[in-house]
Design a protein that fits this description.
CATH superfamily: Phosphotransferase system, sorbose subfamily IIB component
Strand content: 15-25%
Helix content: 25-40%
Number of strands: 9
Order of helices and strands: EHEHHEHHEHEEEHEEH
Length: 162
């Protein structure tokens, strides 16, 4: 089974994921990939508490995520994969994780970031990583909730058509 969604959202697991997207995508597992969160017991506890008991959930480091996804998990379960940045996705793709499409949601304002959509702010590093993903043929779609019309991130960033 493929990844049912790969999602960039700096809030990671929250209501839009657990309520909105989950009911549309019907994943069997929500997988959060973050070295920072996976290495912090209290952060892991907070994120895991947002997931209801009727769905499996994992909080893993980058290396653990790669091992799980390349080790056959996708043959057994429908997985919704959450990361907090385009850089993390580049790392996953570089490691051979099969990603064909990315949903971009909450990349919130921070100093040095510019708005490209109502819920997406990027800096030069984000743009560079989005370009790497785009050049590898990965579709980049901005959409915060399932009912919103998708935004073409590559077009918003003015990437040349491939």
């Amino acid at each position: 089974m493929p990844l049912v969604q790969v999602r960039i959202d700096d809030r990671l697991i929250h209501g839009q994921v657990v309520v909105g997207w989950r009911h549309v995508l019907d994943p069997q597992r929500i997988m959060l990939c973050s070295d920072e969160v996976a290495n912090s017991d209290w952060q892991k506890t907070i994120y895991m508490s947002a997931v209801t008991n009727d769905i499996a959930a994992s909080v893993l480091t980058l290396q653990e995520t790669i091992a799980e996804l390349r080790g056959g998990l996708l043959e057994r379960e429908r997985v919704l994969l959450l990361v907090d940045s385009p850089r993390m996705l580049v790392n996953l793709v570089d490691a051979g994780v099969p990603i064909s499409e990315v949903n971009v949601d909450g990349m919130h304002f921070r100093a040095g970031k510019n708005q490209i959509a109502p819920f997406i702010f990027v800096d030069e590093e984000d743009i560079s990583n989005f370009r790497l993903l785009y050049e590898r043929g990965i579709k980049l779609e901005g959409r915060d909730v399932p009912t919103r019309t998708p935004i073409d991130i590559a077009r918003s960033l003015r990437f040349e058509p491939m």
